């Protein structure tokens, strides 16, 4: 209930901010502009106070929810460990990773992982698997996925068909086979036996489920762990700490839009202002961890926001082993921040968010994405909870119960989506629909993995 109230309160804020921003260019007189600014600030204060009250109510049960979440995580981790290290390596799923960056490759790997886990197979990587972007072997940074089943020959491996009915001992998953045949274990999914508990504990349990597999896959080799521990021990990462991930360079060429540092900092400022109201005192320092492939952003942030302390690690822009370690360090730090601001069009951003779920009961209330909603290699769906009649040609009609394929939240009170009942694409008020959870009802229970 609190998540729903908070989500709707924020949607009101997005709508009001958008409407007032549209008015500003038309306000010519200085007095009227001053009045408009006053109303914007007044509205922000009310919204911050409401969010403060919500956070106070949430804190009452925070410890209990964290304990329950960690208990479920420990149980799931035991099953993953058991399924990856059977006494006999009889059924194998071999994953062929595409050549791309850490975030993309890790998401492809976890997709393979869920398929292996759901079909009772052991996931292994092809021999000599490489993080091609960085020119380094996967196992030079991360521990092997299995200690017992590492080098089984598979000259007759066949492509996995996406189901559980294949009898071949070794099946293979490639990027092409994942894209063309997502199968019944493709994310977003959650195990049905945990669904009721997870839905009560968190807003996006699918991200929690994926995060458990990300955590396992990103277990570090001892020398890399030691190196990262040393680097982070020299940084001031004590809470409160907000993390921002600013993706620039090649990402802007074909996948994402440019977002100014002011857009990121707007939500950082908002977080600390709400924090100030909660505690009735200003934090000693307003700290921000900056992860970016363009280190000029750190200089820009320091120049524009001198009252904030900006922290950054080693360069994550290098396309070599050290660059990979830098990105891994960024992901691990971002996942442990108290709040995360980034763009979900970035795999690194979503990876950090998924991993964040392994550290806190409900990471869905601890982030803001400047562009996409959370997704995992596939569209998300919502169900309409209130009807809506289109007010103009850009909007669509929806009825209670309509399933909507979400194509994006515009962060102005409206989302863009496809109404599957009418096959029409358009805008609808974001607060009138809610995300479906665990819609893949064919997702099996996983207790049999322990047998």
From TrEMBL:
PROSITE patterns: GT23 (PS51659), SH3 (PS50002). Keywords: Glycosyltransferase, SH3 domain, Transferase. Signal peptide: none annotated. This is GT23 domain-containing protein. Residues 88-370 form the GT23 domain. Residues 247-248 are annotated as: Important for donor substrate binding. Pfam families: FUT8_N_cat. InterPro entries: Fut8_N_cat, Fut8_SH3, GT23_dom, SH3-like_dom_sf, SH3_domain. CDD domains: Fut8_like, SH3_Fut8. Belongs to the glycosyltransferase 23 family. Coiled coil: none annotated. PANTHER family: ALPHA- 1,6 -FUCOSYLTRANSFERASE, ALPHA-(1,6)-FUCOSYLTRANSFERASE.
């Amino acid at each position: 209930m609190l998540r729903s109230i908070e989500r709707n309160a924020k949607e009101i804020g997005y709508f009001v901010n958008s409407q007032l921003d549209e008015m500003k260019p038309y306000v010519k007189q200085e007095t009227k502009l001053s009045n408009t600014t006053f109303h914007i600030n007044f509205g922000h204060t009310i919204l911050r106070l409401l969010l403060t009250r919500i956070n106070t109510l949430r804190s009452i049960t925070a410890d209990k929810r964290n304990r329950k979440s960690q208990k479920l995580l420990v149980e799931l981790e035991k099953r993953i460990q058991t399924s990856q290290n059977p006494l006999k390596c009889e059924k194998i799923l071999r994953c062929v990773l595409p050549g791309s960056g850490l975030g993309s490759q890790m998401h492809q790997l976890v997709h393979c992982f869920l398929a292996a886990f759901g079909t009772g197979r052991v996931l292994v990587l092809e021999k000599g698997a490489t993080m091609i972007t960085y020119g380094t072997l996967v196992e030079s940074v991360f521990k092997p996925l299995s200690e017992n089943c590492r080098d089984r020959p598979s000259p007759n491996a066949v492509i996995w068909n996406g189901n559980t009915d294949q009898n071949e001992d070794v099946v293979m998953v490639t990027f092409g086979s994942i894209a063309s045949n997502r199968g019944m274990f493709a994310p977003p999914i959650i195990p049905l036996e945990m669904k009721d508990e997870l839905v009560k504990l968190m807003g996006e349990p699918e991200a929690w489920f994926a995060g458990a597999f990300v955590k396992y896959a990103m277990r570090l080799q001892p020398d890399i762990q030691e190196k990262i521990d040393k680097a982070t021990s020299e940084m001031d990462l004590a809470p409160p700490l907000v993390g921002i991930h600013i993706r620039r360079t090649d990402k802007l060429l074909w996948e994402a839009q440019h977002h100014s540092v002011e857009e990121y900092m707007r939500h950082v400022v908002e977080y600390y202002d709400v924090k100030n109201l909660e505690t009735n005192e200003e934090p000693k320092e307003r700290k921000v961890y900056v992860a970016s492939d363009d280190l000029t952003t750190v200089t820009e942030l320091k120049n524009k926001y001198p009252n904030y302390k900006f922290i950054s690690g080693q360069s994550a822009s290098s396309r070599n082993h050290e660059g990979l370690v830098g990105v891994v360090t960024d992901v691990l730090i971002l996942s442990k921040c108290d709040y995360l601001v980034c763009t979900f069009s970035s795999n690194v951003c979503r990876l950090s968010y998924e991993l964040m779920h392994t550290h806190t009961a409900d990471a869905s209330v601890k982030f803001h994405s400047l562009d996409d909603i959370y997704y995992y290699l596939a569209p998300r769906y919502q169900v309409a909870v209130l009807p809506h009649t289109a007010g103009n040609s850009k909007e669509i009609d929806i009825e209670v119960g309509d399933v909507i394929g979400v194509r994006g939240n515009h962060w102005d009170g409206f989302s863009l989506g496809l109404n599957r009942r009418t096959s029409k694409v358009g805008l609808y008020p974001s607060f009138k629909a809610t995300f479906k959870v665990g819609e893949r009802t064919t997702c099996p229970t996983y207790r049999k993995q322990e047998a």
